[in-house]
């Protein structure tokens, strides 16, 4: 399992792995927002938590098609499926690698971008906490979407259509935590619900992803 | 006599063909009776005026929009567990009907909301969850269309339906989080004292029964079409093999 994780991480970090693209996308989306809604700092401060969450979600979504597609193309997915490691663990590791290479950098970059959007000071810690709790769910749900569309030639758009509705609850609770934090309100309830969604997704969705992948590898 | 007999496509087609005319006629009669009764023989509401009559389209279509997804969930489970092809095809056949019902519910709701709430659309929990349901239907149909192999498509879409149901329910309760919103709560429950007045509820029940029968008729019809399309495909494949 650790070997697989290291392999995925190395592939992502080295040339052509596309590491950092998600981060750059996150940056550019956030920078585009003031161009579209205007530079008033009160308005930006009000929408900053939602914008940062949406940007992180889109950056996650865009990096999903590399998650399984490359392994599918060169056949290593078939090898992984026939390996003694259960396919459920394989997809969990894949999701973990995706989170380390995409979700974690997003979490670390979010406060910097928060400065650009004039996020209130008390909002920073809750923004980071909510992203830290929410992005694992985004990775795991995204792995399910990637597994569904892995055999298709032009699966990218379809995958967005399938994954976006599944992201709705995570997005609602995540940005609710960030918004309440920024406005100085109590965050406990949405925070617990967000953590619950993440935990349940991590525990259950790999089974669905593995089942789907088995169908696709048939 | 068990329900699994109808997993045989031949038996399914023979039986549905027998009941189809009755289904079409009774749903047409019930819907027209319900709508005419509702539109012309109920009093105007003392606050809402005659706009209240849009209820006779709005409530039945919303009812079927949810129950169509529920039916797809059940047939998907049957496909995953017992692998009856008719079941998978019925799920496929129900999805476009469900999407149309969702759109009817959303559009009639907007038309009703404009004079009553002063807005076409509000990010109210019920409205939002219907929009999310609509997105789920779109993804489900798109996945069916994207995959060539029918068995693979049936497997993938049924798992998507199972996972999607969980997330649809989650979204339903997640949007509750914002606020109560504009839409009223359920007003047709059996266990509540305060319901819609009888003058409205009787034609409404007729309309709902008509929509249920219409949905069943449409699903039977579309499932029959899918079975025949599958058969034609098999026949053509055999022809090519022999040629």
Automatic annotation (TrEMBL), chain A:
The keyword Cell inner membrane applies. Pfam families: CcmB. The keyword Hydrolase does not apply. Signal peptide: none annotated. It is found in: Cell inner membrane. Keywords: Cell inner membrane, Cell membrane, Cytochrome c-type biogenesis, Membrane, Transmembrane, Transmembrane helix, Transport. It is a multi-pass membrane protein. It comes from the Bacteria. InterPro entries: Cyt_c_biogenesis_CcmB, Cyt_c_CcmB_bac. The chain crosses the membrane at residues 12-37, 43-64, 96-117, 123-148, 155-173, 193-213. Required for the export of heme to the periplasm for the biogenesis of c-type cytochromes. Belongs to the CcmB/CycW/HelB family. PANTHER family: CYTOCHROME C BIOGENESIS B-RELATED, HEME EXPORTER PROTEIN B. This is Heme exporter protein B.
TrEMBL record, chain B:
It comes from the Bacteria. InterPro entries: Cyt_c_assembly (IPR002541), Cyt_c_biogenesis_CcmC (IPR003557), Cyt_c_biogenesis_CcsA/CcmC (IPR045062). Residues 14-183 form the Cytochrome c assembly protein domain. It is a multi-pass membrane protein. It is found in: Cell inner membrane; Membrane. The chain crosses the membrane at residues 21-42, 54-81, 93-113, 125-144, 156-175, 203-221. The keyword Phosphoprotein does not apply. Keywords: Cell inner membrane, Cell membrane, Cytochrome c-type biogenesis, Membrane, Transmembrane, Transmembrane helix, Transport. Pfam families: Cytochrom_C_asm. Required for the export of heme to the periplasm for the biogenesis of c-type cytochromes. Belongs to the CcmC/CycZ/HelC family. NCBIfam families: ccmC (TIGR01191). This is Heme exporter protein C. It comes from Leisingera daeponensis. The lineage of its organism: Bacteria, Pseudomonadati, Pseudomonadota, Alphaproteobacteria, Rhodobacterales.
């Amino acid at each position: 399992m650790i070997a697989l994780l290291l392999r995925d991480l190395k592939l992502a970090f080295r040339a052509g792995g596309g590491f950092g693209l998600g981060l750059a996308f996150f940056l550019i989306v956030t920078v585009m927002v003031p161009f579209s809604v205007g530079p008033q700092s009160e308005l930006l401060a009000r929408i900053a938590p939602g914008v940062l969450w949406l940007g992180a979600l889109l950056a996650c979504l865009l990096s999903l098609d590399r998650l399984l597609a490359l392994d599918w193309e060169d056949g290593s997915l078939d090898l992984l499926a026939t390996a003694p490691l259960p396919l459920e663990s394989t997809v969990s590791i894949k999701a973990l690698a995706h989170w380390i290479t995409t979700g974690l950098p997003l979490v670390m970059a979010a406060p910097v971008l928060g400065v650009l959007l004039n996020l209130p000071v008390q909002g920073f810690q809750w923004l980071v906490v909510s992203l830290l709790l929410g992005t694992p769910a985004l990775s795991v749900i995204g792995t399910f979407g990637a597994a569904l569309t892995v055999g298709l030639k032009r699966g990218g758009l379809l995958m967005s259509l399938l994954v976006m509705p599944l992201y709705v609850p995570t997005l609602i609770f995540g940005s609710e935590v960030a918004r309440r934090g920024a406005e100085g309100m109590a965050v406990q309830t949405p925070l617990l619900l967000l953590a619950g969604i993440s935990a349940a997704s991590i525990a259950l969705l790999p089974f669905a992803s593995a089942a789907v992948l088995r169908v696709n590898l048939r | 006599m068990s329900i699994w007999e109808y997993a045989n496509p031949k038996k399914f087609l023979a039986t549905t063909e027998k009941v189809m005319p009755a289904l079409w006629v009774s749903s047409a009669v019930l819907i027209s009776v319900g709508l005419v009764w509702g539109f012309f023989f109920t009093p105007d509401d003392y606050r809402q005026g005659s706009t209240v009559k849009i209820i006779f389209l709005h409530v039945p279509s919303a009812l079927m929009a949810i129950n169509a997804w529920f039916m797809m969930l059940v047939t998907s489970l049957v496909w995953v567990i017992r692998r009856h092809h008719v079941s998978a095809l019925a799920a496929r056949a129900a999805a476009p009907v469900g999407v149309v019902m969702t759109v009817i519910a959303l559009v009639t709701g907007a038309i009703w909301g404009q004079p009553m709430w002063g807005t076409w659309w509000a990010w109210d929990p019920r409205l939002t969850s219907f929009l999310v349901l609509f997105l789920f239907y779109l993804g489900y149909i798109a996945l069916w269309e994207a995959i060539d192999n029918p068995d693979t498509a049936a497997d993938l879409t049924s798992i998507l339906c199972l996972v999607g149901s969980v997330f649809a329910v989650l979204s339903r309760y997640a949007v509750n989080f914002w606020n109560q919103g504009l839409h009223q709560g359920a007003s047709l429950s059996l266990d509540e004292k305060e319901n819609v007045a009888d003058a409205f509820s009787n034609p409404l029940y007729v309309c709902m029964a008509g929509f249920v029968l219409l949905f069943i008729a449409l699903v039977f019809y579309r499932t029959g079409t899918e079975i025949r399309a599958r058969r034609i495909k098999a026949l053509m494949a055999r022809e090519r093999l022999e040629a």
